Please model this.
Amino acid sequence: GSIGFVGLVIPHAVRLLFGTCHARLLPASALGGALFLIAADILSRTLIKGQVIPVGVVTALVGAPVFALILIGRRNAR
Model:
């Protein structure tokens, strides 16, 4: 589901911003995931007037390219 996908993508994206210190990474991942889902929910309700797009669609449209970029970046780093 969409929450599992957010749980997969957000910690990797946050690690790029905050480094590998777990004392900062865990709370930043939790906060980042919550903010991402809130933004996705707001976007899903306001993108098309009078209709609600499923949150899973919004998280997939935003999260899939981010996840692909993270994977490509890790492959190039090797």
